[in-house]
Specification:
about 180 residues; elongated; mainly alpha
Length: about 180
Amino acid sequence: MSDRERKRAARRKRKDRGVGRRGEIEERRAKMAERTEEKNRTAREALEPLAEEERPTITTIGAVISALVAVSILIGYATGVEVNDEKPNIVQALAPAILFAVMAWGMWRARYWAVLGFQTVLVLILLSATLLLVGASNVGQAVLNVILIAGCGTLFYFNVKAMARIQMPERAPRR
């Protein structure tokens, strides 16, 4: 047998072993997916659906926080607060105020999209506070950033379960 034939036979053996191995890997993945789905099913069954006009306490807290932020933005603009030594224009003040007001209304009504939007804002604050913590120049800044991270992280964590209870609304089938 020539060297070329020997190498070709060795490649065939490796390929054949790979086919059998792929089957084992796929079988293991299927078992893991089955176990994961079973855990998910158990977790879903343990959740109590919201009653009519009920909203989780954490969602109410988030709605109040969002409303307070919207009101504080408007009050700040009305009183002439300056940002970076200049007064923001009306669009720069109204856009976030409207965003937070709509988010507050949606969370008060226990809407999935509003809680998701609130969590997005929390994540952005968490990322910003973490970056500011890395660059903190004194202990006061570091402590404030740690408090901000702890508060936003706690709100985020408890909103996850609230979102599971709220559930995303069913979509109408396409025609």
